[in-house]
Amino acid sequence: MNLYDYILSEFEYDREVASMFCSVFEYREEPKDKLLIKQGNHSHNVIFFENGLARTCYRKGSKDITHFFYGEGTFYLSTEVVFLERDNIFDIQTLEKCCMRVTQFDKLRQLADRNPKIYHFILKEFSRNIRKTNDKIYGLQFNSAKERYLHLMNEYPDILQRSPLGHIASYLGMTQQRLSNVRREYILDLKKH
């Protein structure tokens, strides 16, 4: 999904506002396995993924842990950098070739200062990201491994086909072996019905 069409639908087909919003973004293509932003960086980049799949991840000792996935029609922004003035705590890495639009957050902030529709859209996008974070934390704390897997399967089914098993397992807070067992149990349950 391209940025203009996404924004146009969000702004109730107000072409002037959609054009204004999109004008501050530049187009970029990156290959698979490209590190877009490195942990510890102070990047204010806002990225909209038009095509492809990426993930945010961090390193804990020798472990590589996936925090979130970003596919078509999603925005990435480091809230730690933009709002807390701290270094970015995640790497962002492409898992497929990605076509994206990129801008600096300050450019969006300037637009938002002049246009209430853009301001409200930015708040809406942050709210979506906060909801995703809250859902993930809730799932890790209260849901079983199987429930977490089913949630991912229902909400983001394409990730299961497009991402390596290790990235999916770490995102779900389990080992690859546990994920394999959960998948096997799910398939057996399907065969019973």
Concise account of the structure shown:
By secondary structure, the chain is an alpha+beta fold. It has nine helices and eight strands. Helix content is 52%, strand content 23%.
Descriptive labels:
193 residues, alpha+beta, four-stranded antiparallel sheet, 8 strands, globular
Please characterize this protein's 3D structure.
With about 190 residues, the chain is an alpha+beta fold. The protein has a domain at about 5-115: Jelly Rolls, CATH 2.60.120.10. Helices cover about 50% and strands about 25% of the residues. The strands form two sheets. A four-stranded antiparallel β-sheet has the order 1-8-3-6. A four-stranded antiparallel β-sheet has the order 2-7-4-5. Helix 1 packs across helix 2 (about 15-20) and helix 4 (about 105-115) crosses helix 5. The protein is globular, with a radius of gyration of 18 Å.
SSE diagram, text form:
Elements (H helix, E strand, L loop, with lengths): L2 H8 L4 H8 L3 E5 L4 E3 L7 E7 L2 E7 L2 E8 L3 E4 L1 H6 L6 E4 L3 E7 H10 L1 H27 L2 H11 L1 H6 L2 H8 L3 H17 L1
Antiparallel strand pairs: 1-8, 2-7, 3-6, 3-8, 4-5, 4-7
Helix pairs in contact: 1-2, 4-5
Q: Write the CATH homologous superfamily of the domain at 3-114.
A: Jelly Rolls
Give the terminus-to-terminus CA distance. 37 Å
Round the mean pLDDT to the nearest integer and report it.
93
The strand order across the widest sheet is 1-8-3-6
Q: Note the beta-strand portion.
A: 15-25%
Q: Roughly how much helix do the residues carry, as a percent range?
A: 40-55%
